[in-house]
Amino acid sequence: MTELAQNLIDALALGSLYALIALGVTLVYSVMDMMNFAHGEFIMLSAYALYALAGAPFGIALGGALVTGVLIAIVAERVAFRPVRRADMSAQLVTSLAVATILQNMVMAAVDARPKSVATPSLVSETTQLGSLSVSNIEFLTLGLTALVLAGLGWLLYRTRAGLAMRAAAENFDMARLLGVRADRVIALSFAISGALAAVVGVLLVMQTGQVSPTMGLTPVLVGFVAVTIGGFGRMLGAVIGGLFLGAASSLLGAYLPTGLLPFRDAIVFSLPVAILIFKPQGLLGAATGVARV
Amino acid sequence: MSVVRLRSRGSLAVSVLAPLVLIALTVAVGASGTLSLRGTVTTILCEMIVVLGLQVFIGNSGVYSFGQLGFASAGAYGAALLTLPAAFVALQTPGLPSVVADAQLGAVGSTAVAAVACGVLAAIVGLPLMRTSTLAIPISTFAFLVVSYNVISNWDRVTGGSGGLVSIPRTTGLVSAGLWAAAATAVALAYKWSTGGYRLQATREDEVAARSLGIGVTGERLVAFALSGMLCGVGGALAAHQSGVLAPSTFYFTASVTILTMMVAGGARSVFGAVLGTIAVAAVNELLRGVEGGGEILGGVSVGNTPGLAAIGVGLILLATMIALPNGLTGGREAGELPWIRRLLGRRRAADRAAGPVTAPIGSAKHGAAIAAPARRDGALRAHGIVVAFGGLRVLRGVDLALRPGEALGLIGPNGAGKTTLVNVLSGFLRPDAGTVELDGVDVSGRSPSRLARAGLTRTFQGALPFPQLSCLESVAVGAMGVGDRRGRAVARAADILDRLGLSARATRPAASLPPAEQRLLGVARALATRPRYLLLDEPAAGLNEAEGEELVAILRGVLEGFGCGILLIEHEMSVVMSLCPRVQVLDDGVTLRIGTPDEIQADPSVIEAYLGHSYLEPANA
Question: Rounded to 10 degrees, what is the CA torsion of B390, B437, B128, B47?
């Protein structure tokens, strides 16, 4: 019983982390119909900001990570994604893949191809006893941050003018423009928020693993993509559900898979969504942008 | 009657020979150099085969896959394990099934087995994935790449795990790699110009229009995906036998980006582009890789030890291509379609046109048989009690309709009456909330548009929905290919239809270059190529001037009388409806208001009221 509860808490924590990644991916998708491969690199670069600011007080390092995530997202949008805004979804996807490759290998060239360890405050690696359950502080932090981010996003999207503009752009970009929504600003804003979400994830990943590497963004971005796909493209709630599902599946498989199969956990986790797509080709909640041409 | 061709002999010859010449030159460069250059060039040729595999799927479908290197690694490991000497098998892969371990195949045998195995693997993987959307396929194939990497690097007893394999016989030589690359080029071109290839290209150009012509999107994508997996498997197998060593990361993320860049830089739609792009990107890549360990670029700039430099270069090429040259170096054209080659071949093209199809008057028995399937006079297209609601809005509220072969039925009504919605239901694009559709006595409710088209029911759209990159002749031929015609027959029929519709002079021009009125007419031509027994036309005369409208009426009359094809005509231009349709059905607000002859309809007060409002009839009470 205790073991089950323990495993469920672990599953929820990992699922929350994955939901944060998927939210960052889907936010940009819903505004400009682009699945952003470089989201993983936004995460990676934020993590490297922690590495670069290792000597500074931890609060400053955190701020640096956040600023890095937001800035790199805004710059990538301005330099690389704006010129292909009118291209089709596949072309945008490939463009973001190019950006991801460039960023990843620039870090490899500038820092090192090998992982670097990053010291984190001892507080985050400690665990708290709740009765017979032991919950690590990083799990508390992940759950708390996810709740905070969800509340914050909800407030932003549904209680502010900027959020209204973003939702309008997500609904019908051209119509929103005609009605006076400033496209450049809305897209930049969604990238900035997406970059901030990536920074949160980057920081949490560093705290979990204690290290950074140039390729650390690859698995997260795949997680985000798959979560968005099984949740339904352009669905915020779908992204959260998809993220929770993948995280829970990964965590529970880690706990219950026979030892011989344990190395193949990722293969199983990423094959599972196919089962969902067989029955629901448009994702659990259906895609938000259907073909409405005929 | 002379044979009509999709491309002139000259253009065909140039398109086939140009990539082969490039490959031969590449082999020659490798043969003239040092041993290390030889090895590098051989590797590039292996990569080229994988790029060609990528082009087969991505270029023709317009859908990206990031997982094809998973098939390349499957092919590499498969071929390596089939040829690994017994002593090394015991050492590296003790868990290998004895069937594979004991097999001692040669270079060609192991490559062939790997090719077949990868084709089957791709078909199995593609079966669920191809059913998803254009955006879900790149993501799920990316997931497949990660899954295959995960399996290969952890299945220690069979694949050697993260340590990889060594002592693989190095049997791939420069010339054999060149020959395989040439064969792969031939396969890619043959597929592109096959009926299946054309059907898939139509889905790339416009998925909705392709479905209306009988083309099953999922099936066509699956065929190309399997063929692509096969070619990638060949490339992987040859690469393994070139380098003699394998590691899980050989075919992973960085390699995927490189391969994709090669295809995109050359021009994804072009086989020639795949060959050219591979060579161009590989040259830059090798140059940069040479200075990664520290050195000088072009004797000028000195560079320190910078891992990742080559990958940065590849990423920049990909980014620059996507932003500045999205159709790649070739513009997506085969060599024989390049503008300057066309000018060179210009004289011969004129000769081709002179030898165009002989025409007979529309409706003559000889050509009627060539275009339309024999109609079953007893059949009919019937709809019963069709109800469609979008949310709370009931767009159709119990509509009946009957259309017999050889009959023209006009469907008119004010904007928002539900006319297009009804056509969407009849053609399978929209599932009604209630009611049934019968085709020649068979309940076809819920059938897909492509199945209905193959059963003899085809529609056109309010928008022209052209296939922009296909020529007019190809666009129409695809209609015939969609319902299963062989290439020669499809092209002959397409030429015939274009001729009747007065579009012959446009045959070799891309559909996108036509003015809007002709694009519409091309849409009708495309639909006619499917040999419909029932043809649903959604405002075909919109945007035509009076003379063009009259021409269209004459053409449709020919279709009716010559082929016994039933026509449902939605049209706002009353003169067209009245002159063509002996029977007219009026829809208003989702119900049938009246069915009658044009004269009856025009005199009916309720119809006038629906169109013009109550006040028009009774101005005194307004």
Answer: -100
Could you tell me if residue A192 is inside a domain? yes
Q: Tell whether B20 is within 8 A of chain A (Cβ).
A: no
pLDDT band at B190 (very low <50, low <70, confident <90, very high): very high
- Decide if A95 touches B, using CB distance below 8 A: yes
Say which of B132, B154, B207 has its CB closest to residue A264: B154
Q: Do A113 and B307 touch (CB under 8 A)?
A: yes
The three-point CA angle B206-B210-B213 to 5° equals 150
Chain B residue nearest residue A231, CA to CA: B136
**DSSP β-bridge partners for residue B584:** B410, B596
Chain B positions touching A97 (Cβ under 8 A) are 66, 257, 260, 318
Q: Which residues on A lie below 8 Å from B285 (Cβ)?
A: none
Q: Is A281 on the interface with B (CB under 8 A)?
A: yes
Tally of domains within chain A:
1
Q: Is the ipTM of this complex over 0.85?
A: yes
Tens digits of per-residue pLDDT, A163-195? Answer: 888 888 887 788 888 888 888 889 999 999 999
Q: What angle do CA A275, A277, A280 make, to 5 degrees?
A: 115
Cβ–Cβ < 8 Å for B60, B200: yes
Q: Give residue B298's pLDDT band: very low, low, confident or very high (50, 70, 90).
A: low
Give a yes or no: residue A225 inside a domain: no
The CATH H-level (homologous superfamily) assignment of domain B369-466+534-621 is P-loop containing nucleotide triphosphate hydrolases (3.40.50.300)
| pLDDT exceeds 80 at position B99 | no
B79 forms bridges with which residues in the sheet?
Answer: none
Positive/negative CA dihedral, B357, B485, B194, B510 = positive
Residue A235 located in a structural domain: no
* Nearest-by-CA chain B residue for A107: B308
Q: Where are the domains of chain B?
A: 9-249, 369-466+534-621
Q: What angle do CA B348, B350, B353 make, to 5 degrees?
A: 115
B325 touches chain A (CB under 8 A): no
Structural domain containing residue A155: 2-217
Q: For residue B138, list chain A residues with Cβ-Cβ distance below 8 A.
A: 35, 90, 93
